Amino acid sequence: MQQSADLPQGIDLSLPVMEGLARAWYIGGMQKKPVVLGEWKGSVDLGGSVNFTDLTLNPHAHGSHTETLGHVCKGDHPIHLLRWPLLIPLTLVTVDGSEDHGLCITLSDIQSALGDGPLDRAIALRTLPSTMDVSKRDHSNCNWPYLHPEAAAWLASESVKELLTESPSIDPEEDGGALAAHRAFWGLSANEVNAGSQARHEATITELIHIPPSVSDGAYALNLQVAAIENDAAPCRPIIYPIEIL
Hints:
Strand content: 25-35%
Largest sheet: 7 strands, mixed, barrel
Radius of gyration: 19 Å
Strand order of the largest sheet: 6-12-11-9-7-13-14
Distance between the termini: 23 Å
């Protein structure tokens, strides 16, 4: 069988989980350790036949990740049970998340960035100032840009199901555990821990991505790849494709 289609590679927005690299939330980076069973070692460097390694990682802290409302709710809401279309319509917009602006991204900021353009099922928020030098940045104690709960609630009301952000969280680094924007986007009331009838079980939040400055605002198609791990969150690899090349 001959393959005639030359498919585009797309633009990878993920920050990988890397050994020893801390990215957020005051903890060290992922740890790797070869399995040792008696005299046998799971490391080719140590004389083993294969590399067979245990990983200790935290999806929320160590790289790009996608999370469900199980992040703030009781019960089981694992990410691996969700399914996404192969390509999801996505709107990419740039908003001002600088300290001069006040760090808080408001509803007005998002609506101004959208202008007369459409709002698709997925939205990716690039926050200014934007820099390519984020591959090894630790965001702990940096007071990152966050989303106002009103803006998160509006996105939910507009049927946005996939929200992507460059910050480690759409809420402030320190907010006393309120996670108001998370709750608003997932259709939860303040302090609600049992997902009620208005909860948006299929909505997801993807954090700690990076949108290169060379990528223009506009319409894209999103391929959201998420590791099949039974947990409220898992490492992910969001890849976007300009609509005109598909």
